[in-house]
């Protein structure tokens, strides 16, 4: 339960990764259960929840939750008087730089839980620890082994094809006791529910097979006309999900009307500047992604970030190809982009013949 509470602290900021939490507990007859560390995954590209919990357990930081939270706060945005926050942010980034080095995990965590037989150290993790190496950070399962963890309790098996039981196997083969919660247990269902959209993104054929703004497979002109008609009816009855761009910035990035009329604007360059300088927040992308999986049709309102229809179309294509893979643009009207992505595993919208 505490690991779930930790995971929820990162929900919305981790896209395209899942939100994960970890609590490390040491147990003994003499002292009972003592929490050694807690952590959550703060954002994509950063170490996972297990590592922030380990940083606290190893004594490298006082609080793993605060350490993970510091990653989400840019030092330049901190109050001038918040010297403690600035120092923590610098310390955490230094530790994380050490961690990603070839011998970094060993340097930070080697045998920190190696103790006598009277104590047992257990890590409670909402999602199976990763075991793959094709990413920016070392695998968490291997790091647990370096730390001499005794037992790991997993809330939900990772559906990522790169993991999918691999983390459990790595730890069990190295004499770590691993317990995966029964899927019917309420707390396991909560763990599963927390990563349900992540699971869809990495297992849905329409995403894995490269759905793009050019069209999800078999979504032809006739089907797009049907979807546009359906969206019109949904808008009239108030059931169409409409989401406005929430990024800040100025529309000068879309240049001037005269330049547009002369055909002098490179809209691909403009949208690249938007994505680079004012990228959509992970929270916004998470919100759009979830609504596409739940409702299949979503209308994006992009008028507050770009002023011309040509730019809106290119920006919509960029969002689809970069963030909302598997979806397709059904229509661009004014400053709006209508997106469609079939629900997985069973689509809700059925097309008329």
TrEMBL record:
<dbReference type="InterPro" id="IPR002125">
    <property type="entry name" value="CMP_dCMP_dom"/>
</dbReference>
<feature type="domain" description="CMP/dCMP-type deaminase">
    <location>
        <begin position="1"/>
        <end position="169"/>
    </location>
</feature>
<dbReference type="GO" id="GO:0003723">
    <property type="term" value="F:RNA binding"/>
</dbReference>
<keyword id="KW-0694">RNA-binding</keyword>
<feature type="domain" description="CRM">
    <location>
        <begin position="217"/>
        <end position="352"/>
    </location>
</feature>
<dbReference type="GO" id="GO:0008835">
    <property type="term" value="F:diaminohydroxyphosphoribosylaminopyrimidine deaminase activity"/>
</dbReference>
<dbReference type="InterPro" id="IPR016193">
    <property type="entry name" value="Cytidine_deaminase-like"/>
</dbReference>
<protein>
    <recommendedName>
        <fullName>CMP/dCMP-type deaminase domain-containing protein</fullName>
    </recommendedName>
</protein>
<dbReference type="InterPro" id="IPR001890">
    <property type="entry name" value="RNA-binding_CRM"/>
</dbReference>
């Amino acid at each position: 339960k505490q690991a779930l509470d930790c995971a929820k602290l990162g929900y919305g900021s981790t896209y395209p990764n899942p939100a994960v939490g970890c609590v490390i507990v040491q147990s003994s007859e003499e002292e009972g259960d003592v929490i050694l560390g807690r952590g959550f995954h703060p954002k994509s590209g950063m170490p996972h929840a297990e590592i922030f919990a380990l940083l606290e357990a190893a004594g490298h930081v006082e609080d793993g939750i605060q350490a993970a939270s510091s990653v989400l706060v840019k030092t330049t945005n901190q109050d001038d008087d918040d010297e403690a926050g600035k120092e923590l942010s610098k310390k955490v980034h230094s530790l994380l730089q050490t961690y990603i080095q070839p011998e970094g995990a060993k340097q930070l965590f080697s045998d920190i839980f190696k103790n006598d037989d009277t104590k047992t150290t257990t890590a409670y993790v909402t999602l199976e620890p990763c075991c793959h190496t094709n990413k920016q950070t070392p695998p968490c399962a291997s790091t647990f082994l370096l730390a001499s963890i005794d037992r790991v309790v997993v809330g939900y098996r990772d559906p990522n094809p790169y993991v999918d039981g691999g983390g459990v196997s790595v730890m069990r083969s190295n004499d770590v006791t691993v317990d995966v919660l029964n899927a019917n247990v309420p707390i396991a269902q909560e763990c599963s529910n927390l990563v349900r959209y992540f699971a869809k993104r990495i297992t849905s054929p329409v995403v894995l097979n490269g759905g793009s703004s050019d069209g999800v497979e078999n979504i032809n002109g006739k089907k797009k006309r049907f979807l546009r008609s359906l969206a019109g009816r949904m808008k009239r009855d108030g059931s169409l999900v409409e989401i406005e761009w929430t990024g800040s910035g100025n529309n000068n990035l879309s240049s001037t009307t005269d330049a547009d009329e002369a055909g002098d604007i490179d809209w691909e360059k403009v949208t690249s500047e938007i994505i680079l300088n004012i990228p959509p927040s992970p929270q916004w992308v998470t919100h759009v992604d979830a609504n596409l999986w739940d409702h299949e049709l979503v209308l994006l309102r992009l008028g507050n970030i770009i002023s011309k229809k040509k730019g809106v179309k290119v920006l919509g294509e960029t969002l689809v190809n970069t963030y909302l893979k598997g979806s397709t643009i059904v229509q661009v009207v004014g400053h709006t982009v209508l997106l469609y992505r079939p629900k997985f595993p069973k689509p809700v919208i059925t097309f008329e013949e």
